[in-house]
Design brief:
14 helices
């Protein structure tokens, strides 16, 4: 199969000195920092510079007389165990030695209040602290669209609320999740425990583009504007329709659902979708990234996978995460074939060689490969398409496409 290499002109806006920017934004926010122990949240996403940002927040708090510590805050992720969640943040470089702060991991929670679907909780260490500083990246949510999606509110509601608050949130019908997130967020704000938050925006190349420091009481009001700013950076596939999309790697470090529904145009939620283009007929996923630590939520969004990916799945971790969300489609095992080569050739035999795209994952979309019939459409969408084709080859059953 002949493929053409494509380079998308994504928005690039990297911050030169992330640590200095964090400190400057926190200085400008005029936060009321109480003396005593302050909890800093650490989530499960592969956020650029997350270790440096977390350390900078901790050092800034120390300069103001506080005693910061880190709390793994990721709902039901990584087996919904304290050990598993601490292992996850340590894999991002957030260790006690590197941060010069203690890590306190627990799945114990304190109930703060109730909403229509159930109670709202907070991690016990956060609740016992003098205050909480939330850190998270602002992104489009993988289940729904709304003014507030994935960011500081979600971190305080579901991250700090552990599996218990995640179950309350995901008991909500998907079309009204956006309202429930706001309602649960208000319970957290009313507790008075969150003194502030550091919101991160990343550009089209997964680089830290903006840092925003918010007072706790203004998170719900200001986060919608940050979601809109994020949309200007968010990379998408430069097509309206595809016959076949091949995703080299999926995983939690790329998206909360392994493959971002806002990129592939499919959420895997019964009776609800709410995504924009593209429309894709067949999706193949070839590998699960090691940083996902066996959690293959979103594997059910694919139609074909390799045996390598199938064998990398930790079914217990995946089950806990998927069952908590309630969308069991996202865990269903697709047709499994021995290798990349078998997957590609099987699909070609049924669907031919037109309408194909190969991407490294759904987070890094600056470089991709397309079949020849897509050249005109892609070339008209702020992309450069190589003039000469690349032959798709395999070695040991693995595809040999080179991504940046």
């Amino acid at each position: 199969m002949e493929l053409y290499r494509v380079r998308q002109h994504l928005v690039s806006n990297p911050i030169a000195d992330v640590t200095a920017e964090v400190r400057a934004r926190l200085d400008a926010a005029e936060l009321d920092v109480p003396r005593g122990e302050i909890a800093i949240t650490a989530g499960s996403r592969g956020i650029a510079n997350i270790a440096a940002i977390t350390r900078a927040v901790g050092d800034w708090l120390k300069d103001r007389g506080a005693k910061p510590f880190i709390v793994p805050a990721m709902g039901s992720h990584n087996g919904a165990t304290a050990e598993g969640q601490q292992n996850m943040i340590e894999s991002f470089g957030i260790t006690e030695d590197a941060m010069q702060m203690p890590i306190r991991a627990s799945m114990e929670v304190v109930e703060l209040g109730r909403v229509a679907t159930g109670p709202v909780f907070m991690d016990k260490f956060c609740h016992e602290s003098a205050g909480v500083m939330a850190i998270n990246r602002i992104k489009l949510h993988t289940c729904f669209a709304g003014a507030i999606q994935s960011g500081l509110t979600k971190m305080t509601v579901i991250g700090m609320g552990k599996i218990q608050s995640a179950e309350t949130f995901h008991s909500t019908p998907t079309p009204v999740m956006k309202e429930m997130l706001t309602q649960m967020g208000q319970v957290i704000v009313d507790s008075g425990k969150v003194i502030g938050g550091v919101a991160i925006l990343e550009d089209g190349f997964d680089q830290t583009a903006e840092i925003h420091a918010l007072r706790g009481a203004e998170i719900l009001r200001r986060e919608p504007d940050l979601v809109e700013r994020h949309k200007a950076y968010f990379p998408r596939l430069p097509v309206d329709e595809l016959r076949v999309l091949v995703v080299e790697e999926m995983g939690k470090n790329f998206s909360g659902t392994g493959m971002d529904p806002n990129v592939i145009g499919y959420r895997g939620v019964k009776d609800y979708d709410g995504t924009e283009d593209p429309s894709i007929q067949i999706i193949a996923a070839l590998r699960l990234h090691a940083k996902s630590q066996g959690n293959a939520i979103g594997v059910g969004l694919a139609d074909f996978i390799t045996r390598e990916l199938r064998d990398a799945i930790d079914e217990q971790k995946t089950f806990i995460n998927v069952f908590t969300t309630g969308e069991m489609i996202r865990m269903k095992i697709p047709a499994t074939l021995p290798s990349d080569e078998d997957v590609v050739n099987t699909i070609r035999g049924r669907y031919g060689d037109e309408g194909w795209m190969f991407i490294p994952n759904t987070l890094h979309l600056e470089e991709l490969y397309i079949s020849s019939d897509l050249r005109d459409e892609v070339g008209a969408r702020n992309c450069d398409v190589d003039g000469e084709p690349t032959e798709l080859t395999f070695s040991g059953g693995r595809q040999q496409l080179a991504f940046a």
